[in-house]
Design a protein that fits this description.
Length: 322
Amino acid sequence: MKQNFTVRQGALDGVEVFLSVAQHRSFRRAAAELGVTPSAISQTVRVLEARIGAALFIRTTRSVGLTEAGEQFLSRAKPAFEELVAASEVARGFGQRPAGLLRLSVPRAVIPTLLELIASFCKAYPEVEVELAASKEVIDLAAEGFDAAVRQGHLIAADMIAVPMTPPFRLIVVGSPAYFAERSRPRHPNDLRQHACLRWRQSNGALALWSFNDNDQAIEIAVSGPLIASDFPTTLGAAIEGMGLAQLPEPLAAVGLRSGKLVKVLDAYAPVRPGVFLCYPGRRQIMPKLRAFIDHVKSRTAGDGKVRMQADARRARSRKKG
């Protein structure tokens, strides 16, 4: 059964004053140390004694001493107060510089694309430890103790602040050369019904349909095949092994395409997704560790955008020359 519990108001009021008087054995010297008047010190001690229900000091015209109750109170209050002050200093340090544990909820499929970013951040901020918790669920960040989450654009709640981590990307269909050695390549999304397709199950339990853009019209195709996975990396590995075709974010398949382990098909029908974002609650005070990570993401994204614009300009000049 739940017990009634009442928080005592002002439980620490007067403790610092008591400790100062006990240290100096003088109300006047305690007042000088704390920057108040001796009468204010006396009044604070009287209130503390009344709240405790026992006299803490023996006062004479020439000296101040501790009663037995005062000695017992001092023996416990002094280390406890010093520990409280130390705890405040530690907490203040976390509030003033990037330090501590930064917990991020991240989809498993996205982690490989973030490792370079995380590595550069850890190098720049050695006092911050980064924890990546792989999850395909959209969790409550505050309830689960996370500082931020990495999410796709369509999964961002209205009360979250979103910072772009990647540019928009295409969903492409890929297969291995070994797979296509025995089958013809599909020319239209409807041709996928004659192919082995590697599917993935969404967090709500439903099998994901494959999405395409056909002359600016969004279409979805229900496919079938030998394997159902719950994440993109598993689907990617199965496609490289020749088990079937896979529809994947283009950045995830980039290494396989460059190495020749994968081949793109239906490229003209690839739909565009909004990209990946760093999300955090807008109503919560941002700790320095998260602020540093946000700024790091923004600086890297800006740099990547500049490189892309330069590459686009070079391609445009090449087309003009051609």
